[in-house]
């Protein structure tokens, strides 16, 4: 095959891969829901599709094999083959977990992306993607609001099933982020009172106070969230609205939260944080950073993927560059020193001093 024809084939195959990209998430979600990856990651010898079907009590071993060989083509699982006993023509395929399965299965409290897969590909999230072109062409509400008839935060607040999936997904994602933050970030030294704004059930703050015994943690979130928060050593739960005020503290922590809001709302929240801090206090913003220039690295693709999810759900929500965060902080009154620390994937801890 000459180079021109090979290049044309490659480009067409890539175009086709883009067209059918949705099926990766859908098949992965099915494998997670079936318990297939957990069964495979249980240890032991490589297993056939029929053996795995038995473990998950599925009746269709052929369908299980089709899912597994699809996932093998994306290196989610590994496949080896052997000849059939008696020398038959058919090959026997055996499967083992690939390294990525560590992040897609139950893994002893390290945190998992499996609940996020179930949440973000839920049927309630699929229809809004059909309205991207409309939202771009005519402006107005976010695609999700066009579908659901109300802003996303109201819709999920009224949907107990979806909000339950969201809480589970966020708790697991937060566990990954918090563990890496404690390994690589040293900005908690010397803090006496740490306020986690939008801290959910307080689990991340609990991990911090367990490591740094001298810190008094304040978990601050909306009343309906705080009412469900468990008692945690070193953590006090306070209900309130960050749009109105923020509890006083030496340091205020904002984790993967500003991405849901417009620049104007971010400034309003950050100004409340600024007011709650003493002179020399700081705010720590933990967010994924958007590259200034798009590139094809996995970290960049992850950032731009999340940015499109935010567009569909909120429209005004977005991933931001480091420069954009610095601008928001400055406009909110943070004129002191600035430091950025890499945490994990494309997440950074951005420290802005008052």
TrEMBL record:
User: Which BP terms from GO are recorded?
Assistant: methylation
| This protein's record includes keyword S-adenosyl-L-methionine | yes
Can you give the residue ranges of the O-methyltransferase C-terminal domain? 129-334
Keywords, in A-Z order: Methyltransferase, S-adenosyl-L-methionine, Transferase
Recorded GO molecular functions are:
O-methyltransferase activity; protein dimerization activity
Q: Which Gene3D superfamilies match?
A: Vaccinia Virus protein VP39, Winged helix-like DNA-binding domain superfamily/Winged helix DNA-binding domain
Which residues are listed as membrane-spanning?
none
Query: Could you tell me which residue ranges the O-methyltransferase dimerisation domain spans?
Result: 17-106
Q: Where is the signal peptide?
A: none
- PANTHER family the record matches: O-METHYLTRANSFERASE
Record's protein name: Uncharacterized protein
Q: Which organism does this sequence originate in? A: Oryza sativa subsp. indica (Rice)
């Amino acid at each position: 095959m000459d180079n021109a024809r090979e290049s044309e084939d490659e480009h067409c195959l890539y175009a086709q891969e883009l067209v059918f990209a949705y099926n990766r998430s859908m098949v992965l979600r099915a494998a997670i829901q079936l318990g297939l990856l957990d069964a495979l990651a249980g240890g032991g010898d490589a297993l056939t599709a029929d053996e795995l079907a038995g473990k998950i009590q599925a009746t269709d071993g052929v369908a299980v094999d089709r899912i597994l060989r699809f996932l093998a083509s994306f290196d989610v699982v590994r496949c080896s083959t052997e000849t059939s006993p008696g020398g038959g023509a058919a090959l026997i395929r055996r499967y083992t977990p690939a390294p990525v399965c560590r992040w897609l299965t139950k893994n002893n409290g390290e945190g998992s992306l499996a609940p996020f897969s179930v949440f973000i590909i839920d049927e309630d999230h699929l229809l809004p993607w059909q309205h991207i072109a409309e939202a771009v062409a005519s402006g107005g509400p976010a695609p999700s609001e066009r579908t659901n008839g109300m802003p996303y935060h109201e819709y999920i607040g009224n949907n107990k099933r979806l909000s339950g999936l969201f809480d589970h997904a966020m708790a697991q994602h937060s566990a990954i982020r918090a563990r890496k933050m404690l390994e690589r970030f040293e900005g908690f030294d010397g803090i006496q009172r740490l306020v986690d704004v939008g801290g959910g059930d307080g689990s991340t703050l609990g991990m911090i106070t367990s490591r740094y015994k001298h810190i008094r943690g304040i978990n601050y979130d909306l009343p309906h969230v705080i009412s469900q928060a468990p008692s945690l050593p070193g953590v006090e739960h306070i209900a309130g609205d960050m749009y109105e005020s923020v509890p006083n503290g030496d340091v205020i922590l904002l984790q993967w939260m500003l991405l849901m809001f417009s620049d104007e709302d971010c400034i309003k929240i950050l100004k409340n944080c600024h007011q709650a801090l003493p002179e020399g206090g700081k705010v720590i913003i933990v967010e994924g950073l958007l590259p200034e220039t798009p590139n094809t690295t996995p970290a960049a693709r992850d950032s731009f993927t999340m940015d499109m999810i935010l567009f569909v759900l909120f429209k005004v929500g977005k991933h931001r560059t480091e420069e954009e965060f610095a601008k928001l902080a400055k406009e909110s009154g943070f004129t002191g020193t600035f430091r950025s620390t890499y945490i994990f994937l494309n997440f950074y801890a951005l420290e802005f001093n008052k």
